[in-house]
Amino acid sequence: MEIVAFDQEWITLIKSAKKLGISLEEVQQFLNSASKKI
C-alpha cells in the first residue's frame, strides 16, 4: 500500500481556483510561466 501525502496549501489553492472557474490547466500554465521568470 502506497501512502501519498498532499500539501494542504496546494489543495486549498486548487479548490480556490476551481471555485473561481479557473481550470487545473490554467493553474499549471500560470505556475510554469511564473517559475520561468524567477
UniProtKB/TrEMBL annotation:
SUPFAM superfamilies xrefs: SinR repressor dimerisation domain-like
GO biological process: regulation of DNA-templated transcription
Matching InterPro entries: SinR/SinI_dimer_dom, SinR/SinI_dimer_dom_sf
GO MF terms, alphabetically ordered: DNA binding; protein dimerization activity
Sin domain boundaries: 1-35
Any one Pfam family match given in the protein's UniProt record, by short name: SinI
Keywords: DNA-binding
Domain of life: Bacteria
Protein name per its UniProtKB record: DNA-binding anti-repressor SinI
Species name: Oceanobacillus profundus
Name of the gene encoding the protein in the UniProt record: sinI
